[in-house]
């Protein structure tokens, strides 16, 4: 990742174009006469514009979190025939664009066509959620948050808004960091969570990170040493968005393969699922930045093997938490049913860590679904060529099962106990 960033920096500026050339097959990119190629204009649009371009309705809902961040949720819908709103939370280094930028294979549009009301959350610090009532993104203090704050501030305000507008309990779908956020939220506010959520669907779940295969495992012990320089160079961010990088990775299949190869040690390899038609667009649109404490917090989870609050060192921990080490997130307090989708070649969200997570969710139902493609890696959850049959259609099916289960459950139990 760092290498790719340096590569990107070294590139000369490409002329800014409002669209990107895409082709049906990788071989088509090398032909001048290709009728299998055209310009995809999504690359120059924002999330709302893309939703509208594909024929769906879009609404922008800005919210103010308790600690002063202004965050955006984008609602996408067509004909709403299903009662359960779907809230989607993105992963690290991305934003809600990742759920609308692969055309009709996008999870958002698949769910919209089935009649679901979809709400795309943009966590603090990302492209569309970068304002604060007193700080700007150039202030180091702006970036003093981890996924913990997304879980105790961003997600609650988002779920409250969806309930206020729809008067319905939602199903939350998270990817990667978006799953961590949901475990933070539903373990700290278990009653609130079960009053607002029928279920949680986790794509590439991340609570424990001690069994990862990714190269990050070997880098993790060194983060505390590198951190001060990163802090100095990027002023609270890690890897700021770099448009030149996206353009390099987009130009032709050779460069797309180079960029993919760089990610292999982090994500796992799966060249088979590289999507010739959408990879140029996703390479431009998906990358976003992240705050340094998110990286530090994940680093701590890798190093300690514990899913716990962020550590500030013994002294400050004592003041804040009353103990020398931070408290654990109490997974056993979670009462919302959870289904995990796990890739067998995902080097970050591994099968073993998913099983550990499930085994600790003792007060709710936890199911693990494995993706039926042996090379499925971490990035495939967002960009795989076969994402529709292999993942997104199954997610839609899982939503339906959760709704049915919730209905039969709430008939048996008086409404007053179920919640709102
Ligand atoms: C495009 O050009 C290639 C060779 O350059 C040729 O084999 C192919 O038939 C051409 N396709 C069309 C649609 O003209
Ligand atoms: C997207 O672009 C449109 C048109 O310029 C603008 O009205 C809208 O506010 C933008 N939305 C976001 C989230 O940037
Ligand atoms: C998606 O669009 C492609 C053309 O871009 C089309 O071939 C395919 O059938 C569409 N799939 C669905 C499920 O609508
Ligand atoms: C998984 O994929 C294989 C072929 O790739 C197929 O034979 C099998 O039926 C699939 N299993 C499920 C459960 O879809």
Automatic annotation (TrEMBL):
Keyword field: Glycoprotein, Hydrolase, Lipid degradation, Lipid metabolism, Signal
Top-level taxonomic group: Eukaryota
Signal peptide coordinates: 1-19
One MF term in the entry's GO annotations: hydrolase activity, acting on ester bonds
All copies of domain AB hydrolase-1, residue ranges: 85-363
Keyword field contains Chloroplast: no
Pfam families reported in the protein's UniProt record: Abhydrolase_1 (PF00561)
Residues annotated as catalytic: 176, 346, 378
Protein's recorded name: Lipase
């Amino acid at each position: 990742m760092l290498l790719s960033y340096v590569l990107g920096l070294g590139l000369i500026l490409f002329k800014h174009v409002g669209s990107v050339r895409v082709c049906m097959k990788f071989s088509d990119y090398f032909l001048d006469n290709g009728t299998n190629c055209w310009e995809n204009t999504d690359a120059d649009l924002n999330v709302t514009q893309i939703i509208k371009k594909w024929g769906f309705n879009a609404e922008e809902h800005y919210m103010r979190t308790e600690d002063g961040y202004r965050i955006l949720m984008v609602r996408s819908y067509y004909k709403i025939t299903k009662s359960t709103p779907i809230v989607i939370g993105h992963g690290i280094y991305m934003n809600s664009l990742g759920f609308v930028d692969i055309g009709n294979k996008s999870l958002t549009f698949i769910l919209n066509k089935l009649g679901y009301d979809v709400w795309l959350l943009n966590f603090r610090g990302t492209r569309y959620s970068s304002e604060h009532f007193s700080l700007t993104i150039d202030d180091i203090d702006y970036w003093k948050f981890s996924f913990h704050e997304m879980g105790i501030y961003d997600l609650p305000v988002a779920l409250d808004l969806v309930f206020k507008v729809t008067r319905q309990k939602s199903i939350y779908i998270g990817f990667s960091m978006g799953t961590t956020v949901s475990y933070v939220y539903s373990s700290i506010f278990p009653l609130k969570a079960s009053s607002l959520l029928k279920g949680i669907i986790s794509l590439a779940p991340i609570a424990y990170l001690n069994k990862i295969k990714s190269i990050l495992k070997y880098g993790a012990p060194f983060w505390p040493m590198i951190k001060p320089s990163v802090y100095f160079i990027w002023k609270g961010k890690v890897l700021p968005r770099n448009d030149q990088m996206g353009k390099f990775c987009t130009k032709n299949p050779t460069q797309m393969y180079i960029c993919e190869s760089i990610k292999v040690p982090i994500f796992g390899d799966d060249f088979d699922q590289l999507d010739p038609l959408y990879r140029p667009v996703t390479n431009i649109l998906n990358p976003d930045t992240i705050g340094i404490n998110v990286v530090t917090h994940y680093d701590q989870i890798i190093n300690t093997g514990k899913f716990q609050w962020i550590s500030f060192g013994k002294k400050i921990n004592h003041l804040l938490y009353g103990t020398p080490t931070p408290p654990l997130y109490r997974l056993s307090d979670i009462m919302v049913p959870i289904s995990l989708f796990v890739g067998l070649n995902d080097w970050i969200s591994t099968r073993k860590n998913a099983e550990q997570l499930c085994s600790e969710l003792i007060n709710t139902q936890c199911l693990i679904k494995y993706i039926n493609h042996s090379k499925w890696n971490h990035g495939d959850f967002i960009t795989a060529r076969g994402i529709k049959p292999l993942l997104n259609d199954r997610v839609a099916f899982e939503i339906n099962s959760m709704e049915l289960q919730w209905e039969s459950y709430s008939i048996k139990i008086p409404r007053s106990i179920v919640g709102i």
